[in-house]
Design brief:
This protein is of the alpha/beta class. It folds into 6 domains: 105 residues, GIY-YIG endonuclease; 65 residues, no CATH class; 177 residues, P-loop containing nucleotide triphosphate hydrolases (Rossmann fold), CATH 3.40.50; 178 residues, Rossmann fold (3-Layer(aba) Sandwich); 61 residues, no CATH class; 88 residues, Alpha-Beta Plaits (2-Layer Sandwich), CATH 3.30.70. Helix content is 31%, strand content 24%. It binds adenosine-5'-diphosphate and zinc ion (ZN).
Length: 732
């Protein structure tokens, strides 16, 4: 058999989403080194450019002159078969290019376009360089060189000593006599943690779920654990993973958001110690690189992380667990618009292993799949120990307004005081950050709006500025109305920052803490907030949805929701589902340790059906109610959706192209498919670009994939109009 002397290389091309594959000759000095999946430098248009080796071959029928590969760029990672297949899958699911797919799957420094050779750090581990009797002799004859002797004795007794542990002069003296030498070993930026927790005895419910899942541990199957808050799901995950580890396999655990999962990650470290790796976007690039490599080198056996960790190349994967599976965060809302659950399914299928989804409020899609038997359903109805579900009261804010209680209802106020008097803690949810959501002039009606987006600016008091939450545009607030110059600017719509002020006035003896995107911008700040609150340094925690999930504070007996309508009134077919989840989750923070919990929810729409379901902690009824609505309105899970946005800096052009896209779809899709629009998108103008939207609803359409690919091709070279295709969008 002749040698493979040619390589097909995928190069990073500058034009959007175009994949270019070219054949290069492998120079003789690289012949035995180049492998499929390696990153290389190749000549291209008189420049050199980075590429990824897709295939090796021994012949080539290329018409053009064949150039030679220049060098191998980074040997830390070589993509394997699974990674190639995942990239292909990602490309098909989201219609992105193969280059974009690979880019999405790795930390920044491993991207094909990155020129970084290696980010790996090493450290010098000292080792003995002579037989033990020679060392002993040296020790006996040189008793005065105390430091040298101490070092040698430690090495003789197999202690780990690094170059940096002793003064250079000491190490050098021993190295010159060839008694000691060193070897490089990888040094990681995130140090391993020691395990401390012992194992608990499982409840009957927990054992049953574990056994039922493990019965099928060697085949691909999606399991849905529907377990109320504090029913012990995490303990189930731990046990599943323990069994998998005994099999010499590894486990991947996805969590929605790192800020919501600090406590969970801590529990993983305590339970499994230094075989746990973490991977998420608030790590630095080098830290992420290290964690990725630990998985690749099979040095960590459990990887816990957010959406992007679904791509981490763990060896010999044995189980994938997705906690809080209903969360929106598993779907990426920029290109490529993938859902980590789809990628997890693909990997589980690839390895023939179980995928476990867990939630107290499963997404409607997942529960529907479980109900028709596509997923296996495992239900956990009982809370662990003494903890009982809290009592929920709904307060009609229209009535309170009459009594001039504009922000805090009488009931909530009384309960907060009661809670403070009992020396217990309260959590207050307001899902809107900033000080006030808009500033309006009472005299002329002027409202501060973003220059680039169709959105009013949010006032942030700490910086005395108005900010656009879409594009970041910021202006300093004026003293007087910029339009009519009267001093009549008023602050409307309360955000968490203003609520904190109001609470500090109303409950002046209480210590109050706020947690939202603004107070957690710095690394480590959310952990500080959580720990301070857990240690009872504060009485009341005010926050956005960030405080609604995953947190376990034994002293919290009261949860207040200031404005439940904030998420209910968002124009999206999933807003009821999201609000139910949010309220049920935040309610689950109260009364977790045997103390009785109270939840008070303030709304202007007390008659909305979801409040009855929240009040009774009744996910099943919520599910039935909402499914009936979805069926009637032809929404998921009854229909699939694809959203197409037609975006351009020119209004006329966007409008014209949107109409063309519609007729293209009508011509090519099946008759049973519903095509809605074009209409203006929810926020019509963002960053000075105009956005039209078309929604496709279908149950089955064999023409869809091809039609969308063709459409994408038509627009790929259009510099003025951009197409944003989102399959199974979470928001429309
Ligand atoms: P979930 O993930 O369903 O919200 P957790 O796993 O966090 O529930 O469990 C809630 C609490 O109960 C935790 O403090 C956990 O340590 C404890 N717990 C879980 N299982 C058991 C058990 N079998 N025995 C005693 N305590 C348990
Ligand atoms: Zn803006």
């Amino acid at each position: 058999m002749s040698k493979d002397i040619y390589a097909e290389v995928l190069i990073e091309y500058e034009v959007k989403s175009l994949d270019k594959v070219f054949t290069y000759e492998i120079p003789s000095f690289l012949l035995d080194k180049i492998k499929v999946g390696m990153k290389v430098k190749v000549p291209f248009n008189n420049k050199s450019i980075n590429g990824l080796v897709l295939k090796l071959k021994n012949s080539c029928d290329e018409q053009f002159e064949i150039k030679e590969i220049i060098e191998i760029l980074n040997e830390d990672i070589v993509f394997d078969d699974e990674m190639f297949k995942i990239a292909e899958k990602l490309k098909n699911l989201t219609l992105c290019s193969l280059s974009t797919a690979f880019k999405t799957m790795v930390p920044a420094s491993l991207k094909v376009s990155s020129n970084k050779k290696s980010m790996a750090k090493y450290e010098r581990l000292l080792i003995l360089n002579k037989e033990e009797n020679v060392i002993e002799e040296y020790i006996n004859n040189n008793k005065k060189a105390k430091k040298q002797i101490e070092l040698l004795e430690k090495l003789v007794s197999n202690e780990q000593i690094f170059y940096r542990d002793y003064p250079v002069s000491v190490v050098k003296a021993l190295a010159e006599k060839e008694l000691v030498t060193y070897e490089y070993i990888p040094k990681y930026r995130i140090m391993p943690k020691e395990k401390i927790k012992s194992v608990v005895a499982l409840t009957e419910e927990q054992s049953l779920v574990i056994n039922n899942i493990l019965k099928e541990k060697n085949k691909y199957k999606t399991h849905l654990i529907y377990g109320v808050t504090a029913s012990g799901k995490t303990e189930v995950y731990f046990n599943l993973i323990e069994t998998i580890l005994k099999n010499n396999q590894t486990a991947l655990v996805l969590v929605p958001e790192i800020t919501l999962s600090t406590q969970l990650i801590k529990r993983f470290y305590e339970r499994f110690g230094n075989i746990v790796g973490i991977y998420h976007s608030s790590l630095s690039d080098t830290e992420r690189y290290d964690e990725y490599l630990k998985a690749y080198r099979n040095e960590v056996k459990i990887m816990i992380g957010t959406r992007s960790s679904v791509f981490v190349p763990l060896k010999n994967l044995g189980i994938i667990i997705i906690d809080e599976e209903h969360s929106d965060n598993f779907k990426q809302d920029t290109t490529p618009r993938y859902n980590a659950i789809d990628i997890a399914k693909f990997r589980a299928k690839y390895h023939s292993i179980p995928l476990v989804l867990g939630s107290a409020t499963p997404s409607l899609e997942s529960m529907a799949k479980a109900n028709v038997g596509i997923y296996s359903l495992h239900t956990m109805k009982k809370r662990i120990g003494l903890s009982i579900l809290p009592e929920v009261t709904i307060v009609d804010m229209a009535e309170e307004m009459k009594k001039r209680n504009n922000v805090i209802s009488e009931l909530l106020k009384n309960n907060i005081n009661k809670c403070l008097n009992a020396n217990e803690q309260a959590i207050i949810l307001l899902n809107r950050r900033g000080y006030s959501s808009f500033i309006t002039c009472q005299n002329c009606g002027y409202t501060y709006k973003c220059k680039y987006c169709d959105i009013s600016l949010t006032y942030h008091k700490s910086s005395d500025s108005l900010r656009c939450h879409y594009c970041g545009y910021t202006v300093i607030k004026d003293d007087k109305c910029p339009e009519c110059h009267e001093s009549s600017l008023s602050f409307l719509g309360t955000g968490t920052e203003k609520l904190e002020d109001i609470f500090k006035k109303e409950f002046s003896n209480a210590k109050i803490l706020r947690m939202d995107t603004d107070t957690t911008a710095n690394k480590g700040s959310h952990e500080k907030i959580i720990n301070a609150f857990k240690n009872h340094e504060y009485d009341i925690l005010i926050g956005t949805q960030m405080i609604s999930k995953g947190l376990d504070f034994p002293l919290v007996t009261l949860v207040g929701v200031i404005n439940a309508d904030a998420s209910l009134n968002i124009p999206d077919f999933r807003s009821s589902e999201r609000t139910f989840e949010l309220l049920d989750q935040v309610a689950g923070r109260a009364g977790r340790s045997g103390l009785k919990g109270n939840v008070i929810i303030q709304t202007f729409n007390p008659d909305n059906y979801i409040f009855e379901n929240v009040k009774n902690h009744d996910y099943e009824s919520f599910y039935q109610n909402e499914m009936a609505i979805r069926k009637k309105l032809k929404y998921p899970p009854y229909y699939f959706l694809t959203s197409i946005k037609i975006i351009s800096p020119e209004y006329e052009l966007a409008s014209k192209e949107a109409t063309k896209v519609k007729s293209f779809l009508e011509k090519n899709l099946q008759k049973s498919t519903i095509i809605l629009g074009p209409t203006t998108a929810n926020v019509f103008r963002i960053n000075n670009t105009y956005r039209f939207q078309i929604i496709i609803k279908y149950q089955k359409d064999d023409q869809l994939e091809k039609t969308l690919k063709d459409l994408e091709q038509i627009f790929i070279t259009n510099k003025k109009v951009y197409l944003e295709i989102d399959n199974n969008p979470l928001k429309v």
